[in-house]
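Need a sequence for this fold. Nothing fancy.
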């Protein structure tokens, strides 16, 4: 049985004091909620403060990006060990905004996965097609390539520790959610791909979460799909009440 996984990707939002306020409020509101892994991914500057606040709570902490080198002359980058040291358990890799604005590719995704797994951080790896790709009926091809190249050489033990996020680019921040059927179709494709390349057992273990305009009002329908195991939430994770309602509706 795959445990529900709901993560808030705060993107480039919230100062440290705003982080403190949001985390304190979330902590109060979700303390009694069970049966779901709740994770927040604030910006780098807020991570260590957030880590102190969530330490005795049921909220996990993740970062939004990482570099694959251990240390050295890479101005502006943050290493896996630095994230670990700041209190992170998870890290988002290959988000479409990173692919679009910062040149992230399937190859850099793979390097990052290997680097973070070597310090036992859990990668949340994003895949997803653009609107143009969907319109040109290239969705499956694009996702397959992202999986094939992004997970090249990753063994079964390590794939088990990865969370896959399907985020159709056209549904991010647009208010256009994929219908539950559209999302389920791709989630099933990903699970079948894992079964074919690895094993049935593994395909049943790996959590595949959905992202793209998830909110309290559509969470239940999306989460009730057989192959959708949670959500990666942008906008609706920036306010305590919205995020908590979304989580409760997903259970
Ligand atoms: P929105 O929920 O704002 O559409 O963002 C989704 C997302 O990109 C999460 O990583």
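Here you go.
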């Amino acid at each position: 049985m795959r445990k529900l996984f709901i993560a808030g990707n705060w993107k480039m939002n919230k100062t440290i004091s705003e982080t403190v306020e949001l985390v304190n409020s979330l902590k109060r509101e979700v303390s009694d909620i069970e049966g779901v892994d709740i994770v927040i991914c604030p910006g780098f500057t807020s991570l260590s403060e957030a880590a102190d606040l969530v330490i005795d709570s049921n909220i996990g902490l993740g970062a939004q990006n990482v570099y694959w080198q251990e240390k050295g002359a890479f101005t502006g980058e943050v290493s896996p060990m630095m994230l670990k040291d700041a209190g992170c358990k998870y890290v988002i890799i290959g988000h479409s905004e990173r692919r679009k604005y910062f040149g992230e590719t399937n190859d850099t995704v793979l390097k990052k996965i290997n680097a973070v797994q070597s310090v036992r951080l859990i990668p949340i790896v994003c895949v997803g097609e653009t609107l143009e790709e969907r319109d040109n009926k290239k969705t499956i091809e694009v996702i397959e390539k992202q999986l094939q190249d992004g997970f090249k050489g990753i063994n079964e033990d390590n794939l088990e520790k990865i969370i896959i996020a399907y985020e159709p680019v056209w549904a991010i921040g647009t208010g256009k959610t994929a219908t539950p059927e559209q999302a389920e179709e791709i989630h099933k494709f990903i699970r079948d791909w894992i079964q074919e390349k690895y094993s049935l057992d593994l395909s049943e273990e790996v959590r595949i979460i959905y992202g793209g305009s998830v909110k309290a009002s559509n969470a239940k329908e999306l989460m009730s799909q057989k192959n959708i195991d949670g959500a990666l939430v942008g906008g609706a994770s920036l306010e305590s009440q919205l995020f908590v309602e979304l989580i409760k509706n997903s259970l």
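For context: The chain has twelve helices and eight strands.
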